[in-house]
Write a structure and sequence with these properties.
This protein has helices at 10-28, 63-72, 81-84, 114-122, 140-151, 161-167, 171-183, 187-194, 206-214, 218-228, 232-241, 247-254, 260-288, and strands spanning 32-35, 54-58, 76-79, 90-95, 99-104, 126-130, 133-137. It is α+β, with helices and mostly antiparallel strands and 289 residues long. The protein has a domain at 1-195: Beta Polymerase, domain 2, CATH 3.30.460.40. The longest helix has 29 residues, at 260-288. The termini are far apart.
Length: 289
């Protein structure tokens, strides 16, 4: 051996990542569904796009068990549920061989209880071979809905999935998707993706989906999160966290874990940045009038 390293193409590594997490889940009795990326039915992604990481939706009662097993098998925590997104739905891990994996404890936009939602999707699962390993994936209609809800959280310019999974979908599949939208109470996020969001202005989570689908400042996002909080206690906890530095995001920006001095500096920079974002937002609103 001369120590030569071989670069593995990302799509290949991602497929092995799916297989690795499935093998681990099978060994500890964890139920999970592979979603997005390489797990998507070819009819929904004709170009074969495999994504940039591995995404799995885990039975909520099994999340802690999978978290422990991942840490014991070479996966390192990259971002937590609290710091990963405005919805707190996923935790990201990284592995030297397999890259990144997102563990979803629920899927943003689905408003039935996470356990009930998982069971509904699990009940119509089928198996897909990924890197030679049998992986459970949702039905094609459910995959379509998840891609649509995911598109609602993407910039409008990046919503490539909508054409294949909704705009160009056959009538029977569109009907199946709409039925699933109603069953999973996903109407608000669905409207944020395909149109009609303004008809939901009276709903608690409207402003949050408005920000994530149409764009907005960090301060607008935080206030939307506070308004979307299901209880007063949740809202107060968000208000208390708002001034704190998101160390995971800062590390991603720097490409390494920040020093204490850098965290302190970021704490003082954040208010000035928020004022600047608010000023830009006011100017934009004034220009549209």
């Amino acid at each position: 051996m001369n120590g030569t390293q071989v670069s593995v193409p990302l799509p290949v590594r991602l497929r092995f990542g799916h297989a690795a997490v499935q093998y681990l889940a099978d060994s500890i009795g964890v139920d999970l569904l592979h979603i997005k990326g390489a797990a998507v039915d070819p009819s929904l992604r004709p170009n074969g796009y495999a994504g940039s990481d591995v995404d799995v939706l885990v039975r909520p009662e099994h999340v802690a068990r999978l978290d422990l097993a991942l840490r014991q098998h070479g996966w390192r925590l990259y971002t937590t549920f609290a710091s990963g997104s405005p919805f707190g739905h996923a935790q990201t891990y990284t592995h030297d061989a397999w890259g990144y994996i997102d563990i979803h404890r629920f899927f943003p936009g689905i408003r039935v209880a996470p356990t009930d939602a998982f069971e509904r999707l699990w009940s119509e699962r089928h198996e897909a071979l990924i890197a030679g390993v049998g992986c459970a994936v949702p039905s094609v209609s459910a995959q379509s809905l998840l891609l649509i809800l995911n598109a609602a959280r993407s910039p409008r310019s990046a919503r490539h999935d909508l054409a294949a999974v909704w705009s160009s979908a056959p009538d029977d599949r569109r009907a199946a998707i709409e039925s699933l939208v109603a069953e999973l109470r996903a109407e608000l996020a669905f409207a944020a993706a395909v149109g009609g969001l303004e008809s939901h202005q009276g709903e608690r989570e409207y402003r949050l989906w408005k920000v994530v689908s149409a764009g907005g400042s960090r301060s607008e996002e935080w206030w939307a999160r506070v308004r979307a909080a299901p209880t007063l206690g949740d809202a107060l906890r968000l208000v208390a966290r708002a001034p704190l530095v998101n160390v995971d995001h800062l590390a991603a920006r720097l490409g390494r874990r920040p020093t204490r001095l850098e965290v302190v500096a970021e704490f003082f920079v954040r208010p000035a940045r928020a004022v600047g974002e608010a000023w830009v937002g006011l100017q934009r609103r004034g220009a549209r009038r």
